[in-house]
Amino acid sequence: MSRFQRALDGEKTSFVVVYGRRRLGKSTLIKRCLTEDDVYYLADRSEPGHQRSLLAKTIAQKFPEFDKPEYPDWETLFRALNYRTQTRFTLCLDELPYIVEQSAELPSVLQKLLDEKCLNFNLVVCGSAQNMMYGMFLDSSSPLYGRADELMKLSPLRLPYITEALGIEAEKAIEEYSVWGGVPRYWELREGKGGLREALWHNVLSADGALYEEPLKLFQDDVKDVVKTSTIMSYVGAGANRLSEIAARCNDPATNLSRPLKKLIELGFLYREVPFGSEEKNSKKSLYGIADPFLSFYYHFVVPNRSFIELGRKLPLENALDEHFQEYVSMGWERICRDAVSGNLIDGVLYGSARRWWGQVMTEEGKPVRMEFDVVAESLDRKYLLVGECKWTSRENGAHLTEKLLGRARLLPFARNHTVVPVLFLKTRPDADTGNALLPEDIIRLSS
Q1: What are 53's strand-pairing partners?
Q2: Closest alpha carbon to 390 in 405, 375, 376
Q3: Mean pLDDT score of the chain, rounded to an integer?
Q4: Quick one: DSSP state of residue 387?
Q5: If we measure between CA atoms, which residue out of 163, 168, 199, 195 comes closest to residue 182?
Q6: Secondary element (H or E) of residue 152
Q7: Neighbours of 185 (CB within 10 A)
Q8: Which among 26, 51, 81, 245 counts the fewest CB atoms within 10 Å?
């Protein structure tokens, strides 16, 4: 809000672009910064003449009778508004992609007006269609490329904020964040619904729930082939994490999936990870996962049970949640822990990016064995190697886990010439605590 407000209050008029996926609070952010003297217009998908008429009616609330003439094109409308403007104000065009869908010439019109440096009002544009917004403002071939005074991409809120928003303790915050992620609108729908289960039944696990069809709404904004996207997301959510597995289930050559997978990663729906120490571009050990916690929950619990949800059968879903929810949270806990370690000080040592590691190592007897580590990070001075294990269970034995972790870590080829630092990321304080455990409250503090 401070950054947005500074742009509007500068010495000269500003052109501000706000974008990001749906439900992040872009419109709320903008409306909280606008005053009664400003003009806020929410576009729809109607034809251009009707859009201009609706915008003119909105502007007429500030400039009486502005809607009396009929504006034949966008340039005429904006120049007429500029002519009427004596004191600077802000005009916001929310959901700009809806207008551009029907008026492809609008970016060139805005470019012309901005390049003339004649506008007497601030112009704010906003949109949830990430593809279109990126194309309009970050593609070097676009008319509006490089014209924005402020280009603000909103991202989901970070973990610590959910404790304040929902008034919950650290352990519950991990569970809630594993379901809702950092999307403010989901937090609003969660708020005031009692426990997490009640909120899930009300919003997600019911055919009448506000979020029951949420993935479809998100995909409609940004992808051309919604069916293909839903299919890929379903298979990844069901555990197909390698390109070959996804291709086999889609009955498609792997080469045909490279582009849609890349696009889903750019949109923030999927992530691709490679083992610690591997180059991201060249690694053949890539694994894919669902990046957004809510979508991950949806494809783990809603998609496999849609028939039961449509029939209003609660028991199969209760069983699924009872048996698998904690296991599901543990996967989110791993990612949360890696993010918390990355670029952070742990016991006075500054670490770089943390990743998982999986692969084959040789035992002291010379036998090859496969191993996996939940968290691996090298200190920026390259002296220390943090090796961590994540557990979302109670009553673990800290001494036993640490001893086992150290024994496995010594077999890592890249651990040589490093001081290995074993760290346990645990749900609760362990028995036989060796002082190297990080609990939910520690992770939330590191994530702040």
Answers
A1: none
A2: 375
A3: 95
A4: E
A5: 163
A6: strand 150-153
A7: 16
A8: 245
Chain-centre distance for alpha carbon 189: 18
Give the pLDDT of residue 282: 66
Torsion of CA 326, 332, 335, 338, to 10 degrees: -50
Which residues are paired to 17 by β-bridges? 125, 151
Percent of the chain past pLDDT 90, that is, above it, reads: 92
**DSSP H helical segments within 34-122, as ranges?**
48-59, 74-84, 96-102, 106-115
Report CA Rg, the chain. 26
- Can you give the pTM of this predicted structure? 0.92
Residue range 374-398: mean pLDDT, rounded:
97
Mean pLDDT of all residues in 353-360: 96
Q: Does the pLDDT of residue 284 top 80, yes or no?
A: no
Sheet strands (E) in 220-362: 270-273, 287-290, 345-346, 349-350, 355-362
Show Cβ contacts of residue 422 under 8 Å, excluding neighbours closer than 6 positions.
387, 388, 389, 402, 405, 406, 409, 436
Three-state SS for 103? Answer: coil
d(CA 127, CA 133): 7
Over residues 237-253, the mean pLDDT reads 94
